[in-house]
Design goal:
Blueprint (H helix, E strand, L loop, with lengths): L8 E5 L4 H11 L3 H12 L4 E5 L19 E4 L11 H16 L3 E4 L1 H9 L3 E4 L8 E7 L16 E4 L4 E5 L5 E5 L7 E6 L2 E6 L7 H10 L1 H6 L6 H16 L4 H7 L3 H4 L1 H4 L1 H18 L1
Parallel strand pairs: 1-2, 1-3, 3-4, 4-11
Antiparallel strand pairs: 5-8, 6-7, 6-9, 9-10, 10-11
Helix pairs in contact: 1-5, 3-4, 5-7
Pfam families: GATase
InterPro entries: ChyE-like (IPR044992), Class_I_gatase-like (IPR029062), GATASE (IPR017926)
GO molecular function: transferase activity
Length: 290
């Protein structure tokens, strides 16, 4: 970046409640928002990255800041259920409506997609086909998704890290379905509302494989209840393989055993959607600021 060019300014909205935030830190050493901060700094060196916690009571932007002053807003995953009326979900949805109204481009993964959906008038429900855990398999672009810039560089069918028990039931009016799979009909979408644009995915391009392993261990009881494993030892063994692949991504034996290819094992390919968002929408906004 030229010295006279303003740095990109990113805002990460972490909607994990405090207890979930600390459980994740105890498991993998960072909250969902901290993971996003690290990922964004790797994709856009020199970017100024900030974090806000919209689900928390009393959370707000620093004095003198406005949402319009950022080049992009990023919504993290969260255990919040957007079909439940709670103070946390109300605060998070209200924040997202403010993001739309600000005109600042936004991106979200997992619960981030669900938050944007509800904020724009769509609906969310518990997964009808059960827990989608570790990886979303055989994600396929829709007809419009095949040419959408969010998926530029993705093949006709791909896998991605995913851990979720809720899903988008109905997209808001005018939204574009970008991708889906057999388990979750809405795996990626574009939502335009109140002057703002949001690109989101139900999966987690921001997650490294050690964080996928950590999520499996934290949610072992839910995986057993869902019939995806028979014991915590089985969950642990699977998570150990995922962890080992994180440490040695070129191990073909582990990739074969887990049924994964370079769309997951290659960090550059795994981050495709985030990179595309930064290059297209945030790039356009930065150009307009000059």
């Amino acid at each position: 970046m030229h010295p006279s060019t303003p740095a990109l300014r990113f805002l990460v909205a972490e909607s994990e409640p405090p207890e979930a935030r600390e459980a994740r830190r105890a498991s993998v050493g960072r909250s969902s928002g901290e993971t996003y901060l690290d990922t964004l700094r790797s994709l856009a060196p020199g970017a100024e990255c900030y974090r806000i916690k919209p689900a928390d009571a009393g959370a707000g932007l620093p004095a003198g800041e406005s949402l319009a002053g950022y080049d992009g807003v990023f919504l993290t995953g969260s255990p919040l259920h957007l079909y439940e009326e709670t103070p946390e979900t109300r605060r998070t949805v209200e924040f997202m409506r403010a993001v739309f109204a600000s005109g600042t481009p936004s991106f979200g993964s997992c619960a981030g997609l669900q938050v944007a959906t509800v904020a724009a008038g769509g609906t969310v429900r518990a997964n009808t086909r059960g827990f989608e855990a570790a990886f979303a398999r055989r994600i396929t672009p829709s007809e419009q998704g095949r040419s959408h810039p969010l998926l530029a560089g993705r093949p006709a069918c791909y896998d991605a890290p995913a851990v979720h028990t809720d899903e988008v039931e109905t997209l808001p009016k005018g939204a574009i379905l970008i991708a889906g799979n057999r388990v979750t009909a809405v795996q990626a979408a574009e939502i335009r509302f109140d002057g703002g644009v949001f690109w989101g995915v139900q999966y987690h391009p921001e997650l490294a494989l050690d964080e996928v392993a950590g999520a499996l261990r934290r949610q072992a009881d839910g995986l057993i209840e869902a019939g995806l494993a028979r014991s915590r030892d089985e969950v642990g063994a699977y998570a150990d393989d995922v962890d080992a692949l994180h440490r040695e991504p070129c191990r073909r034996d582990l990739a074969w055993r887990l049924g994964l290819d370079e769309q997951v094992t290659d960090a550059s390919k795994r981050l495709t959607e985030l990179r595309n968002f930064i290059e297209v929408l945030c790039g356009n906004r930065e150009t307009a600021r000059r």
